[in-house]
Write a structure and sequence with these properties.
Layout: H1 3-23, E1 43-51, E2 57-63, E3 65-66, H2 68-79, E4 93-101, E5 125-130, E6 133-137, E7 143-144, E8 150-157, E9 164-174, E10 203-216, E11 221-229
Antiparallel strand pairs: 1-2, 1-11, 3-10, 4-5, 4-9, 6-7, 6-8, 8-11, 9-10
Length: about 230
């Protein structure tokens, strides 16, 4: 058996396992299939630019974690209106904005604990901002005018916004308040995950990330691009 045959045999076994999981309620949606695009997966990556008032620009990037609550939000969106309206199961938003925070007390600023998919809100949110632009992205990373499986969401915190030592952030949506001044997080931020909790009327943390501290001084501008691949 050559390497090509061996690879296809292995892939076939993995697909059969995923079909078995789906039929038995243990849905993995193919995350174990070793494809370049993580077929049926959902992932994100974050890029940032911090422009100081001196003109210096600090750039970086890091991955994110898709939360379990993102699955609830997607299910609500896919369910759509049914029966007599209004239907409170349909969320007000998919993704509305980006929340940033300084993390839990006692975190090591250079090595914060890794994000987990059970996160439901930020530990210490200090600012949130509406998504400024959203764009479809093609396989070359270019913005296009037709639907693709990749989107870029961008937002910018101005000179007086989100000032402090940032160590955590997350995309929020669901039933978040459109003004973003009214916060209704699911608490605790990361306790024992309760899948029976009714999340309607709450902020939904869709993606979450912890990262080495980004110190944003007053007078600086901090821009984020959150790239999501479905």
């Amino acid at each position: 058996m050559n390497w090509r045959t061996s690879l296809f045999v292995e892939l076939g076994i993995m697909i059969q396992k995923d079909i078995y999981k789906f039929q038995n309620g243990d849905v993995d949606f193919g995350l174990s299939i070793p494809t370049e695009d993580h077929l049926f997966g959902y992932k994100g990556h974050i890029y940032y630019n911090l422009q100081l008032d001196t003109g210096k620009v600090i750039s970086g990037d890091f991955p994110n974690t898709v939360t379990l609550d993102a699955g609830i939000l997607l299910a609500r969106i896919m369910k759509g209106p049914a029966g007599i309206l209004p239907n409170t199961m349909v969320p007000s938003f998919s993704i509305l904005g980006l929340a940033v925070g300084t993390g839990d007390m006692g975190w090591n600023g250079n090595v914060p604990p890794p994000a987990t998919n059970t996160q439901r809100s930020l530990y210490n949110e200090i600012a949130r901002k509406a998504i400024l632009t959203s764009s479809f992205i093609n396989s070359t990373g270019s913005m296009v005018g037709y639907p693709t499986r990749v989107i870029d969401l961008t937002t910018t915190f101005g000179p007086s916004e989100a000032v402090g030592p940032l160590k955590e952030m997350g995309l929020i949506g669901g039933d978040s308040n459109s003004s973003l001044s009214i916060k209704n997080p699911i608490l605790p931020p990361n306790g024992v995950y309760d899948s029976t909790l009714d999340t309607t009327g709450k902020d939904c943390l869709v993606n979450y990330s912890t990262f080495p501290v980004i110190n944003k001084p007053a007078g600086s501008t901090l821009s984020f691009t959150w790239r999501l691949t479905f």
